[in-house]
Amino acid sequence: MANISVSSVERGLAILELLIESGEGLPISEIALHLSLPLSATHRLLQALISAHYVKQEPLSERYVLTLKLGAIGLRQLAGMTLAKAVQPVLDELAKKTCELVRLAVVEGDDMTWMAEAQGSTGNIRYHPPISSCHVPLHTTGMGKAWLATMPEKEAIEKVVARGFDTEPLGPNAIRTVAALRREIRKAREMGFAFNDQESELGLSAIAMLVGDRGKANHVVGAVSIAGPSFRLSREKLVSFAEPLRQAILQLEQIWPVHAHANNRGS
């Protein structure tokens, strides 16, 4: 077996990551420049990747592009996972960054259902109650309000009114009127995310954002929230979570359609 150095493996992986970001491929000169390598060394690495069928060179442009092999490996991996297992690393990383509880819910028909979570708090005071119901309350949670904001306003209000404002456990700031619900829906629509300010229970604050299906315009498949004790999660603190939350959502939106496609291939 040929000797393979760690540096060669790292550089080979760096080439793959570079080509992933460039859909049209790259000439060897740009690859070498990015890796700060001589053209001769870059050429050897590319030839090794070509021999392993991960990369090919376009005959006309002479640019190097990825083959479908890397994607096929990813599909095989995801096909053996449940969706919860596939998304768990993303939730774990977000929980680690924010040091709070992260939860994922999925849309199932007219309901939103809890599916996975990750605890990031390492202190003595943490928010991590048991999930008493599999269904996410719509008008008292950030997740629910963010989802309602994607619907026609009349439909969203009718959905909540039909269930009743007092059917879920309530916090001191819970929405109890149609007028208040309308205001919250409009705020969530403008911001692109929603808050829970002691609405589902006393002492809990959270921010939530939706997960969309990239293959279907305006189609919501789930939501992610970051929650913790209100005394340390001011509105400003929650807003500071918006960007890491958005980055996690982008990762989940990449996993979601691929995972669904992988499962469909196996069914």
Structure commentary:
By secondary structure, this protein is of the alpha+beta class. The chain folds into two domains: 6-67, Orthogonal Bundle (Arc Repressor Mutant, subunit A); 81-266, 2-Layer Sandwich (Beta-Lactamase). It is 48% helix and 17% strand. The chain has ten helices and seven strands. The strands form two sheets. Strands 4-3-7-6-5 form a five-stranded antiparallel β-sheet, sandwiched between helices. Strands 1-2 form a two-stranded antiparallel ribbon. Strand 5 and strand 6 form a beta hairpin. The longest helix is centred in the C-terminal third of the chain and has 25 residues, at 242-266. The two termini are 38 Å apart. 31% of the residues are buried. Mean pLDDT is 86; it is low at 261-267.
Name the descriptors.
Beta-Lactamase, five-stranded antiparallel beta sheet, 267 residues, two-stranded antiparallel ribbon, alpha+beta, 2 domains, disordered C terminus, 7 strands, elongated, single chain, Arc Repressor Mutant, subunit A
